[in-house]
Amino acid sequence: MNRDFFKDKVVIITGASSGIGMAAARLFASYGARLSLAARSLDRLKALAEELTDDHSRILCVKTDVSVMEDCRRLIDETVSHFGRIDILINNAGISMRASFLDVDISVIHRLMDVNFWGTVYCTKFALPWLLKSKGSVVGVISIAGYAGLPGRTGYSTSKFAVRGFLDTLRIEHLQDGLHVMVFSPGYTASNIRNAALLADGSQQGSTPKDESKLMTAEEVAHKLAMGLVKRKREMILTVIGVLDVFLYKRFPKLMDWVQLKYIQRQEKTIDPLNK
């Protein structure tokens, strides 16, 4: 992979204080990129920036709640004011959930859409004029849930389907402008997203049935993301299981509905053995 591709490029990463966002920040900094890091915790962003470089001019930290439109506008404005350009926008900030639609409070669905979908829309809207100038890249980090409905994850799947539809449409609108649009689906990754997943009442799950030692690491995902940017990929679905899932859903949707249901039911019993 051509690491020089990232040298001095200005990269915005939302959700940069943990997981895939933090791993991407570390990787791109090592490749010589200039970073604008966004998350709700400014202290965690500043600690990451201190870890990455002594040259504070190369990293901008912006306290951002992507569900708030004005926060996203300020993120883009401060990035352009500091660096003068934007080359890559990585819409990575996201939250998950674990509750059936029957049980979930509707406010949880709103929260998922506000962060996962509207956060992507807001940041992309304000960054787009600058990305068109640089013929840059906009990335939406989704998951297999953006291709196949996951029971117990109604709001999550809905938001990821929406992000995919939004970015696929944006790509078509700008086919002749040199804009690169990539839908990036990591699959199951060792990160904090499941621990912070919202339950029916909006509280955080706090634990996950997944054995995260067997999952793809955030660092591995970041390397794949970098490769997709260099090659200007339209879409990336990571892991063999992820690719197979999407393929089988297109060919055998009815069968795969049952497969998904049984898989999630097994997971639920791992959390609560009395859950029949």
Notable features of this structure?
single chain, 276 residues, alpha/beta, Rossmann fold, seven-stranded parallel beta sheet, 7 strands, globular, disordered C terminus
Concise description?
The protein has 276 residues and is of the alpha/beta class.
**CATH architectural arrangement:** 3-Layer(aba) Sandwich
- Strand order, main sheet: write it out: 3-2-1-4-5-6-7
* Structural category: alpha/beta
Shape type = globular
Q: What does this protein structure show overall?
A:
The protein is globular, with a radius of gyration of 18 Å. The longest helix is centred in the middle third of the chain and has 29 residues. 47% of the residues lie in helices and 12% in strands. It is α/β, with parallel strands linked by helices and 276 residues long. The termini are far apart. The chain has a single domain, classed as Rossmann fold (3-Layer(aba) Sandwich). The protein contains eight helices and seven strands. Strands 3-2-1-4-5-6-7 form a seven-stranded parallel beta sheet, sandwiched between helices. α5 links the parallel β5 and β6.
